[in-house]
Write a structure and sequence with these properties.
The protein is mostly helical. It has 8 helices and no strands. The chain has helices at residues 4-13, 15-41, 51-74, 88-94, 101-105, 112-140, 147-210, 214-233. Helix 2 (15-41) runs antiparallel to helix 3 and helix 6 packs across helix 7. The longest helix is centred in the C-terminal third of the chain and has 64 residues, at 147-210. The protein is globular, with a radius of gyration of 18 Å. Mean pLDDT is 93; it is low at 254-262.
Length: 262
């Protein structure tokens, strides 16, 4: 029977597919760490109180990259090249979503609208990350090899999402509500297309590694397209709503206090 758990288990059991999965995940997390680090350094003067939270977000993403690489190391594996068609972060940037890397490499301070763009982009992508990690947590929270890593990353992603809600609500109350909703909608609609394309690419690469039959590969592609059809119709709306987090200040101001994974 084809299920999320059986699919992930198959990838986990094979060294080549596990290396590809962890390499893709580590690359995306490390990229997110760099982006947040640069944004924290370029925060405008009127938003300086936000800088430690952005830095903490970046530190968490860097930690996640190290976790995935540590999981590889525990199996005596090394990272493999990430296929360009699976690079979620760069494909989003190519669609003009988020802050361009050229902008982040410059030393010019960001404006408040740039912070709105960053937070809206993060709110959408962290929704996806939170959902994906919750799925992995349901499947493998008690797994002897990856359970601790899955639980740790999932908790972090939930906090990142809550932080984005809190800060966007603060900015909306300060008069940026229309810009926030417009940016959220643009990001969400672009993200669901990129997520579909990346999912198809990842499944194609995994299928080649694991030798999936044509019917099985076709069934997985159909499932991905079905998810995209739902998200295009209505599912994207979950990515643009804003609600106060259960606990205020989900990240706090600890820029470098993220726990290590060994």
């Amino acid at each position: 029977m084809l299920s999320a758990k059986s699919l992930f288990q198959e990838m986990l059991d094979d060294d080549r597919s596990f290396a590809l999965f962890c390499s893709i995940a580590a690359g995306g997390e490390s990229q997110g760490g760099w982006e947040n680090g640069r944004i924290a350094a370029l925060v405008p003067a009127e938003e300086r109180a936000l800088a430690p939270k952005i830095a903490r977000h970046g530190a968490d993403e860097d930690k996640h990259g190290r976790i995935f690489n540590a999981l590889l190391g525990k199996r005596g594996l090394t990272p493999v090249p990430v296929p360009p068609d699976t690079d979620y972060t760069m494909l989003l940037e190519a669609r003009g979503i988020g802050l361009a890397h050229d902008r982040l490499r410059a030393d010019t301070p960001l404006g408040v609208q740039d912070i709105v763009t960053y937070l809206a982009h993060s709110r959408v992508t962290e929704q996806r990350a939170s959902e994906q990690m919750r799925l992995l947590r349901r499947c493998f929270a008690d797994h002897p090899d990856i359970g601790r890593a899955v639980r740790m990353i999932s908790a972090d992603e939930d906090n990142h999402l809550a932080y984005c809600h809190e800060e966007l609500l603060r900015l909306a109350a300060a008069g940026h509500g229309r810009a926030i909703q417009r940016t959220l909608r643009t990001c969400a609609l672009a993200e669901i297309r990129v997520y579909r394309d990346v999912s198809l690419a990842v499944m194609a690469h995994m299928g080649a590694v694991l030798g999936w039959s044509r019917p099985r590969a076709a069934a997985l592609r159909a499932g991905i397209h079905a998810v995209h059809a739902y998200e295009r119709l209505a599912g994207w709306r979950r990515m643009v709503t804003l609600r106060p987090p259960e606990h205020s200040d989900p990240l706090g101001c600890r820029a470098t206090g993220a726990p290590e994974f060994a």
